[in-house]
Amino acid sequence: MGLLTLDTSVAAWFVKNGVTAQVEFGRRRRAMQINQGPGGANRVIFSPGDSSGKLGKIGPVRLPGPREAAARARSLADASAIVAVYVWACNPTADPSDERAHWSAALDLQEWTIRAVHEVYGRNHTWGDWGMTPEPDVHVYGVELVSALTISFPFLSKAPAIDYPASSINKDLRTAPPP
C-alpha cells in the first residue's frame, strides 16, 4: 500500500464509519474551497512531502522476499514517505467566534483521521510533529491543524510473466478401437 492509496483508503474507512468529512489528495487541494456538502468545512487533505519539498527516504530492503503472496513480486527498496495531513473542521452550529467549539470539531476530526490511518496502515506509519496553521485571518471559520505523517511501503518488482502450459483434454471419444 503506497502513497497514492492513502486518501481513497481513508475516505472509504470514513464512509464505513459514518464520518462525513471530505478527503482529498495533493498539494493544490489545500488552497481550494472544498467545504460544501455534508460535514460543512470538515475536510482532510493528504499532501505529499513537507514544506521544504522533501518526500522522505528510499532505503535498502528490510524484509527481502515477497510482501504479498498474490503479487508474486519481490521488494526492491523500502520507502518512508512524508505526508502533511491538513485537518480543517468547524462546528456548523456554533458561532464563528466560538473557538472552543471549532477546536473541539478539529480535534475530533484529527482523532478520526488517526484511527483511519491506523486501521488502513497498521504498523506501517508514524505520526510526527503537529500544529495549527498560522493564518487565523484566512481560516476565520473553523480550525485547521497540520500533522506530519510518515508511511512506509516497499517498491516491488513487477510480477514475472509466467507461461503455464495449457492443458488440453482430448474429448474425442471413440466407440471402436482404432484400426
Describe the structure using short key phrases.
179 residues; alpha+beta; STM4215-like; 6-stranded mixed beta sheet; 2 helices; elongated
Strand content: 25-35%
SSE string, helices as H and strands as E:
HEEEEHEE
Radius of gyration equals: 24 Å
What count of structural domains? 1
User: Class in CATH?
Assistant: Alpha Beta
CATH superfamily: Phage tail protein-like
The CATH architecture category equals 2-Layer Sandwich
- Estimate the global geometry from the Cα principal axes: elongated
Distance between the termini: 63 Å
Structural class: alpha+beta
Give a count of the beta strands, DSSP E runs of length 2 or more.
6
Biggest sheet features: 6 strands, mixed
Describe it for me?
By secondary structure, the protein is an alpha+beta fold. Helix 1 (6-16) packs across helix 2 (99-121). The protein has helices at 6-16, 99-121, and strands at 22-25, 43-48, 56-59, 75-89, 125-132, 143-156. The radius of gyration is 24 Å and the shape is elongated. It has a single domain (3-156), classed as STM4215-like (2-Layer Sandwich), CATH 3.30.2000. Strands 1, 2, 3, 4, 5 and 6 form a six-stranded mixed sheet that branches. It is built from two helices and six strands; from the N terminus they run H-E-E-E-E-H-E-E.
Brief write-up:
The chain is α+β, with helices and mostly antiparallel strands and 179 residues long.
